[in-house]
């Protein structure tokens, strides 16, 4: 009996790779996204000196903001968050809420005199127009301007950045150095327009992954269904440094996945989930069917 031939055939059969199942492919995608998303922060690791992993001290002053994803009708989050959040923390909150891994370039611009689309139309929550109304050009003619109050860039890029031309911004600032309270402030004279407009007319346009054009509009929505303009700044009885998700709609807010109706898991609304995310204990991932929350692999 030729045993070597039988063993050879058996070994050959065993070496044929098993076709990947959708479940295996999905787990591999999640694992890759988690590794890539956390790799950029490995040099910083959770520490009191890291603006991307550190929450501010608890406060009783919070503001309710709407985070509206452009280009996909009705995808938004409405969140109550502490006024002492920096834009570095705000950036991490956006990644957490939409399940993005943080591997793409991003920028944020703070605008005054924001005009919104109708809250009852398809572009509800999106910014229609922005910028100070008029100014005099070199020839003495009135022209409309749309300069930003702040050009907010990642840590260490205030001196030079290929992300944005500074010609139409008043000031470039590190995201770790700008507080939410410097944009929306209980004292209107101290908001980003220095009293030029109401808090409800301040807005932020956040862009992520420039090639894919993921844009998030951050505003106080003036429709009563989303925000009561008589209570622009909410004072809580108990100090907190955690965000509270109050409303949401999830549809197609994902990377590398076709738009589909999505759901948010119960874990997404747990009280301390964002603190755990900041500590790398959990991560979020924009799957095809839901915004997934994954525990750190042991």
From TrEMBL:
Gene3D superfamilies: MM3350-like. Pfam families: PRiA4_ORF3 (PF07929). Residues 63-222 form the Plasmid pRiA4b Orf3-like domain. Residues 1-29 are annotated as: Disordered. SUPFAM superfamilies: MM3350-like (SSF159941). This is Plasmid pRiA4b Orf3-like domain-containing protein. It comes from Favolaschia claudopus.
């Amino acid at each position: 009996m030729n045993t070597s031939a039988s063993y050879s055939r058996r070994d050959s059969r065993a070496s044929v790779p098993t076709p990947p199942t959708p479940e295996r492919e999905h787990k591999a995608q999640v694992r890759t996204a988690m590794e890539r998303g956390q790799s950029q922060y490995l040099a910083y690791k959770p520490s009191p000196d890291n603006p991307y992993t550190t929450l501010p001290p608890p406060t009783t002053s919070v503001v309710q903001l709407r985070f509206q994803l452009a280009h996909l009708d009705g995808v938004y989050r409405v969140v109550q968050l502490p006024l002492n959040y920096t834009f570095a923390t705000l950036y991490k909150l956006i990644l957490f809420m939409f399940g993005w891994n943080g591997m793409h370039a991003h920028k944020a611009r703070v605008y005054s005199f924001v005009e919104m689309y109708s809250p009852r139309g398809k572009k509800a929550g999106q910014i229609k127009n922005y910028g100070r109304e008029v100014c005099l050009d070199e020839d003495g003619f009135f022209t409309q301007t749309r300069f930003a109050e702040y050009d907010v860039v990642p840590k260490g890029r205030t001196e030079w950045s290929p992300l944005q031309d500074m010609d139409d911004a008043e000031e470039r600032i590190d995201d770790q150095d700008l507080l939410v309270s410097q944009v929306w402030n209980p004292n209107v004279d101290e908001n980003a327009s220095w009293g030029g407009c109401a808090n409800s007319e301040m807005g932020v346009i956040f862009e992520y992954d420039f090639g894919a054009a993921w844009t998030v509009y951050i505003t106080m929505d003036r429709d009563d269904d989303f925000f009561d303009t008589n209570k622009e700044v909410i004072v809580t009885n108990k100090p907190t440094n955690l965000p509270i998700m109050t409303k949401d709609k999830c549809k197609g807010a994902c990377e590398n996945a076709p738009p589909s109706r999505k759901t948010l898991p119960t874990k997404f609304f747990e009280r301390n989930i964002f603190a755990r995310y900041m500590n790398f204990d959990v991560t979020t991932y924009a799957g095809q069917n839901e915004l997934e929350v994954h525990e750190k692999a042991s």
